[in-house]
Design goal:
By secondary structure, the chain is of the alpha+beta class. 36% of the residues lie in helices and 12% in strands. The chain has four helices and five strands. The strands form two sheets. Strands 2-3-5 form a three-stranded antiparallel β-sheet. Strands 1-4 form a two-stranded antiparallel sheet. The longest helix is centred in the last third of the chain and has 31 residues. The N and C termini lie far apart (128 Å).
């Protein structure tokens, strides 16, 4: 008798629990007829929308990106002085830089800093990046920035390497030869000046 009563009472709890869950589900279905507007957390209207469908129709809808968000890196190569500070501070070595010294005047950056180096290689491997933002902090000309672009997934991981350069490999080779020639001429002139000083 007690066993039958216990089973009957347990069955009642199960039915009650199922009906409670079903009621909650129907309540969500009813509220889902309304959609929440895609607003950022800091917006005053964000918490005034307790009901409604919260799922966004991405990529047609997306939450606004915060101003201090750290996402994909971008280098404005025309403002880069190839100082190598970003590559040195990077904790995961995702920035690769090669430089060639200029033998002629190559202009200035937008903030008035004189450019003395070319960048035949300036690669950023976003597959390695840990999004710490240290490289953007140490950049003296503010040419390296983190953009609001966060959706840049790729099928091939090699496409996660972004190339920024101001000269082609052929031009880089030509600049290296010009620099080597200039250094040879300077060394020859220095040797001739020393020889003339010893004779005089």
């Amino acid at each position: 008798m007690k066993e039958a009563l216990r089973n009957k009472t347990g069955f009642g709890y199960v039915v009650k629990s199922l009906l409670s869950g079903l009621g909650l589900t129907w309540k969500h279905f009813k509220n889902a007829r309304n959609r929440r507007t895609p607003e950022y957390v800091s917006d005053e209207n964000y918490f005034k929308q307790p009901d409604g469908m919260a799922t966004l129709k991405y990529p047609y809808e997306a939450l606004p990106v915060p101003d201090n968000g750290r996402y994909r890196l971008h280098n404005e190569i025309d403002d880069c002085i190839v100082c190598d500070l970003c590559a040195k501070i990077c904790p995961v070595n995702c920035i690769t830089i090669e430089s060639v010294k200029a033998t002629e005047d190559i202009g200035m950056t937008s903030d008035g800093t004189k450019k003395r180096l070319f960048a035949p290689v300036f690669d950023i491997d976003m597959a390695k990046c840990c999004y710490c933002g240290l490289c953007t902090t140490v950049c003296p000309t503010d040419c390296l920035t983190m953009t609001p672009v966060y959706d840049f997934s790729e099928v091939d991981i090699k496409n996660m390497v972004y190339h920024f350069t101001d000269i082609t490999p052929e031009q880089a080779e030509e600049k290296k030869q010009l620099l080597a020639r200039q250094q040879e001429e300077m060394a020859a002139a220095k040797a001739a000046a020393l020889a003339a000083r010893k004779q005089g």
